[in-house]
Amino acid sequence: MHEMSLAENLLALIEEESRKQGFRCVHTVTVAIGVLGPVEPMALQFCFAAVARGTLAHKARLQIETVPANGFCPDCGYTGSVTEWHQDCPRCALANLVVTGGDDFFLTGLEVI
Q1: pLDDT (tens digit, 9 = 90+) per residue, 18-54?
Q2: What are the Cα distances from residue 12, in Å, to 53, 55, 78, 82?
Q3: What is the SS3 string spanning 43-83?
Q4: Using one digit for the tens of pLDDT, what is the confidence trace for 54-90?
Q5: Which end of the chain is more exposed for a tag (fewer CB within 10 A), N or C?
Q6: Which residues are part of a known binding site for Zn(2+)?
Q7: Binding residue numbers
Q8: What is the pTM for the complete model shown?
Q9: Domains of the chain by range and CATH?
Q10: What's the Rg (C-alpha) of the chain?
Q11: Collapsing DSSP states into helix, strand and coil, what is residue 40?
């Protein structure tokens, strides 16, 4: 379950920011997850709650935002939303669509006390 590794890394980032900024308690942690990424939001919620026990984030709420995936077709110039890694261009129907993004995972915000 790689969500556990992600949760551990997320907590390490939070603790590092706490040392830099001097906060002692985290109220909300906001992360962005790409729609095409391999991260299961419910599993991440569970893992984060487990690793946060006994830390400055033990009462933190994990808020997950979804990041859309985009694509570009070098044949017709289409740029826009995509829903799968391997799909034909919605404009010209050729199979050369290049997916850009959608597998993101990053910390976007902390609400601290």
Answers
A1: 999 999 999 999 999 999 999 999 999 999 999 999 9
A2: 13, 11, 40, 33
A3: HHHHHHHHHHCCCCCCCCEEEEEEECEEEECCCCCCEEEEC
A4: 999 999 999 999 999 999 999 999 999 999 989 999 9
A5: C
A6: 73, 76, 89, 92
A7: 2, 73, 76, 89, 92
A8: 0.84
A9: 2-112 (3.30.2320.80)
A10: 18
A11: coil
